[in-house]
Amino acid sequence: MSRETGSEAAERRAIWTPLCLAREGWAAGVGRLMVAAVPAPGGRQSGLTGRTIEVTVIRPGVSNNGLRYGEAALAASVSLWEGAAAFCDHPGPLDQGRAGGRSVRDLVGVYGEPRYEAGRGIVAALRLYPTAEWLGRIVEAYLGDLAAGRPVARLGVSADMLVIKTPTAERLPGGRPIFEVSRIVTVNSADVVMNPAAGGRFERILEAGEVGEEEELVGEGDEGNECEKAKLGGRA
Question: Quick check: is 194 in a domain?
């Protein structure tokens, strides 16, 4: 029996991996999914990483939807932004009835190292996942156009969160009432959107990731099942 070539092995993994993940119950949250990078030719370890971008998530002041975020309320919320998810676009009607909430397909990254800067707001590092490389390229082009003084789209970051607010006597120019936010209770996510309401914006690329030439998905589950045998090249 002839040995399979590298390309044949890669093709087999590409076919079997989705089947194995489905049959091993990954969709139901059983076990963990680990991603291992395979060394590149010549002994170089190819890293499976994405871009890391400095983001101003939310600024003090009155947002376009009539919520006033004061310095104290934002400063007290710093810990809530650690590990917050980043999705592409805000949730739509289809997300409301989905078990677990947002779709994993829309997940593009995660926030870390949050801090509060006086006059600027909540600042954090958004680490994009490798699957969101397309979004990293858009942000990179956006920042390049911004630095060069070229026109840019109103691309930015908008938070999905639960807040405690009280009404004020003030209104926006269009007549919308203004509410004072006294506390941010929960941060669900900070999403990449068009026309952000509270000044969330991309600032600069902190780290440009390098995607490996070949990656293999490894599941931690039942070692004796058919899928595991298939990934190892055997037969069930």
Answer: yes
Percent of the chain clearing pLDDT 90 (strictly above): 57
Give the DSSP per-residue string, 189-207. Answer: EEEEEES-SS-BEEEEEEE
Tell me which residue of 89, 84, 97, 41 sits closest to 214, measured CA to CA. 41
- Whether the CB-CB separation of 53 and 202 falls below 8 Å is answered with yes
What is the rounded distance in angstroms from the CA atom of residue 128 to the CA atom of residue 145?
20
Q: Which residue in this structure is represented by tokens 């995660």?
A: 110
| Same structural domain, 183 and 143 | yes
Query: Cα(218)–Cα(105) distance, rounded to whole angstroms?
Result: 19
Distance CA 69, CA 152 (A): 26
Expressed in angstroms, the distance from the first to the final Cα of the chain is: 17
Q: pLDDT, tens digit, for every residue of 129-139?
A: 999 999 999 99
* Main-chain dihedrals φ then ψ at residue 12, nearest 5 degrees: -65, -40
pLDDT digits (tens, 9 = 90+) for 206-230: 977 544 433 333 333 333 333 333 3
**Residues 61 and 141 reside in one and the same domain:** yes
Q: Which of 182, 218, 215 is nearest to 68 (CA)?
A: 182
Decide if pLDDT at 118 tops 50. Answer: yes
- The range of the structural domain enclosing residue 165 comes to 52-207
Helix, strand, coil share of the chain (percent; to 5)? 25, 40, 35
Could you give the residue ranges of the DSSP H alpha helices within 97-132?
Answer: none
